Amino acid sequence: MDSHIHVKQEMSSPVIDPILRIVKISEEDKQTVALVHNAPIVSSYNDRIRPLLDTIDRLRHLKIMQEGIQLPTIVVVGDQSSGKSSVLESLAGISLPRGQGICTRVPLIMRLQNHSNSKPDLSLEFNGKVVPTDEENIADAISLATEEIAGKGKGISNSLLTLVVKKKGVPDLTMVDLPGITRVPVHGQPEDIYEQISKIIMEFITPEESIILNVLSASVDFSTCESIRMSQRVDKTGQRTLAVVTKADKSPEGLLEKVTADDVNIGLGYVCVRNRIGDESYEEAREEEARLFETHPQLSKINKSIVGIPVLAQRLVKIQATIIVKCLPEIARKINDKLSANLDELNKLPKNLTSVAEAMTTFMHILGNAKESLRKILVQGEFDEYPDVLEMHGTARLAEMLNMYSEELLSEKLAENKENFLLEEIKILEETKSIGLPNFLPKSAFLTLLQKKVNMISAKPFDIVEKIWNYIENVVISVLLRHSDNYPQLMSCTRRAAQNLIDKKMQQSIDWVNDMVEMEKLTDYTCNPEYTSSWNKFMSHQDEFMKCINSQHPSVIRIDGFGDVNVVHLFSLKCVVQEAFDVKMRMTAYWDIVMKRMVDNMALHLLFSIQNLVKKEMQMEIINELVGPKGNGLERMLEESPSISEKRNKLKKSINLLKESKDVVANIMDRVVTNFD
Ligand code: GDP
Ligand code: MG
Question: Which PANTHER family match (predicted)?
Answer without folding.
Answer: DYNAMIN, DYNAMIN-RELATED PROTEIN 4C
